[in-house]
Amino acid sequence: MADTTDPEQTPTRTFAWEDMFVHPDDDPRSQDPYEGERATLTGYLRDQRLTLEVKCAGLDAEQMARRSVPPSNMSLLGLVRHLAGVEHAWFRKVLAGEQGQRPFRRPDDRDWDFDGAVGDAAAVEEAWRVWRQEVAFAERFAADAPSMDLTVEHDGQPLSLREVLVHMIEEYARHNGHADLLRERIDGRVGE
Predict the structure, then answer these.
(1) Does residue 117 fall inside a structural domain?
(2) Are 184 and 56 in contact (CB under 8 A)?
(3) From CA 31, how far away is CA 27, in angstroms rounded?
(4) Segments in the chain forming alpha helices (H)
(5) What CATH number should be reported for the domain holding residue 145?
(6) Is 106 helix (H, G, I), strand (E, B) or coil?
(7) InterPro entries, per this entry (predicted)?
(8) Domain ranges, residue 140
(9) Alpha-carbon distance 149 to 161, whole Å?
């Protein structure tokens, strides 16, 4: 079917610096080149984590829990809860070999990180507290590892710290794209 949309009738949006989360000159993410593989991977991951925080800055509990569009259960609060669980799973459980329940997950609802994200200030505070705790553990683990070649067995296959860091960069990058759209829908703020 041919597109019959008149381009002159399609609204376009222009963005001003005020619409952005942060002016590029004030961006807290690193602008300097990283030296070495570990610094590069942990630096890019740190920047992705900072991006999540920037995208959520200044929102109240209701806004953090606001769902995108039906039927999706995705929200910024759900993303924070989900990424806390992902940090926990990869760094604590897989790499460090610790036992324990993944945060924000229930045996009867694998999507509890999203399904349980409610517009309550205490729920938002808990999500950020757990996320920061898991990020701190992951940062210490990566800094203290003897090398990027530190390898564990996961699902019957060798898995290195390097692979986990690359996976985490990808995980955050994908979800930060979701966060861009969620935030724009909430208040019109956009990323660069």
Answers:
(1) yes
(2) no
(3) 9
(4) 37-56, 61-65, 76-87, 112-115, 121-144, 161-187
(5) 1.20.120.450
(6) strand
(7) DinB/YfiT-like, MST-like
(8) 36-43+59-187
(9) 6
Nearest to 43 by CA among 131, 181, 172: 172
CA gap 89, 99 in Å, rounded:
10
CA–CA separation, 109 and 38 (whole Å): 36
In a domain, 13, yes or no: no
Q: In the structure encoding, which two tokens stand for residue 77, read together?
A: 């609060």
What is the distance, to the nearest Å, from the Cα of residue 7 to the centroid of all Cα atoms in its chain? Answer: 35
Alpha carbons 156 and 20: distance in angstroms, whole number: 45
Cα angle 30, 35, 41 (rounded to 5 degrees) comes to 65
Query: What total number of domains does the chain contain?
Result: 1
Q: Residue 160: CB partners within 8 Å, gap ≥ 6? A: 148, 149, 150, 151
> What are the tens digits of pLDDT across the range 100-136?
999 999 999 999 999 999 999 999 999 999 999 999 9
Give dist(CA 123, CA 5) in Å, integer: 44
Mean pLDDT of 81-87: 98
Per the domain annotation, does 119 fall within a domain? Answer: yes
Q: What is the CA radius of gyration of the chain?
A: 19
